[in-house]
């Protein structure tokens, strides 16, 4: 049946609403086989995800599983926001079950019908169809093309005793399709009402089921292009009904459809023939259906032969063909491949093998990944994302770990670049906001004492609790239309960047992160603009665990290099070249041991999350992406993940920072404190000797 669809233009999105294990799944599979990106929608998200994986694996297609409740207008709106984010919806198939439940196949006494059930049947059959159609019609009108197919049944033609609940909704659905067909036909949009009678069968009725499924593609691709059939009153409605189609209807294939054709086609025909519209219909309607039936049977037979042939030659083909590395990466990054790797059986793998696989792909081990997904999933579900939460997180981690652009990642994951960017922005925003307070915390209490003790073991200096440093994060580019002065983003090394400021402890875990300045800003200015500076100057933080050193009250402090001003809570070296006294040089050496922790932490950060080596996100999203990587860095350090090779930044040299007039009191106390600590360190070292 591939020949029935045009191949002159790229496929759009085929959205199938109401995907169960029979007809809905088969329709979705058929459109996927024809090259469409398919969005499948239903109430059961778990079952829907299995269907999506099955179709993606077997048809090598791109399939998205999106939850929808057709009786809830809000659910429909949110679901189609996700669908429309994938691209242009070229085909909408509306195929929900009666009332969102099992198909109604047994009659119900009128007096036994509950009003709630009746209202829900109307809501699903008609109101839901109305809402879904309204979501996609604007895009179709804008492009002048598109198809909307509503699944109906014969009770939409004639009421049947015992089926009042079903018939009312289906009658209304048929009326809706006819009204829409007449309204949107002149705009190039095809609206059809496809009648499928009975419960879709299993293998014993496989050919008839095959015809049912192909009917949807046939109507979309062929009928309104090749077989326009006029009817009375100047309308463009095709009712394939009655005795002439009984053979086809046995397979579930009656059609009530609006046809895409020029109105003058009927007018010309009515002037050139004396045949009545009814006679015209009865004499011509069988032709397209006969053609379709023959084509479907032949296609079905060909597909069976093809599948047998492919299975018998698969071994030979596998030996003879070698996929390119790009294709291999694409298959490895597909939803089905991800699912195969992330099933519960992963816990039966050898942990080193399992975790090596995950670190190679996503930057961290599987247990850490699973824990991360658990923390992000509640927030991701609120966004009604069209991808499974774990797959979305994995995709973003892959981008952050390898530094791929959205375009490159879109190609590997078979997604739209816009969708990759959207998901990246969402996940990094959640990391930078929801998880930041959990994993980047200013130390207090017992943790503060632990850090102080560890730094004293490392440096012999008391009450040190962190090391501060700034690092330029290279930007792939700066859009000229987003900044007034691009030169302010050029760091001393000459490349465009934004400035990252971090404070790290002895375990190379960040306890403060700030990204507020362009790369041309010096470290001292960035520090003074940060919230950390305001909290330190107001003694809001690091005010516990005060000790006395040679008569000086010493609160916990951080250390930095000469690019930062000397303050009572921020100690810096006496000199940069060892020109001080013996005590001062010894103090500088100890202080720089502590400061080396933040240098190593930044090296690990950029080595593990390589997107920070050449940041390829929009300038507006750069800060949250950087902060997100810092959160992930802390998660890895806390979990004890193996440390990657350190990324070495080019050395930046600048003039020593000086205290401002408003900082003089902090500076004088810091200067006196630093000398007292240098003398105390020298005395302790001499006593040891």
TrEMBL record:
Record flagged with keyword Metal-binding: yes
Keywords from the UniProt entry: Metal-binding
InterPro entries, sorted: HARBI1_dom (IPR027806), NAD(P)-bd_dom_sf (IPR036291), SDR_fam (IPR002347)
Superkingdom: Eukaryota
Keyword Metal-binding appears in the UniProt entry: yes
Comp. bias intervals (Low complexity): 308-327
Protein name according to UniProt: Short-chain dehydrogenase/reductase SDR
Organism: Macleaya cordata
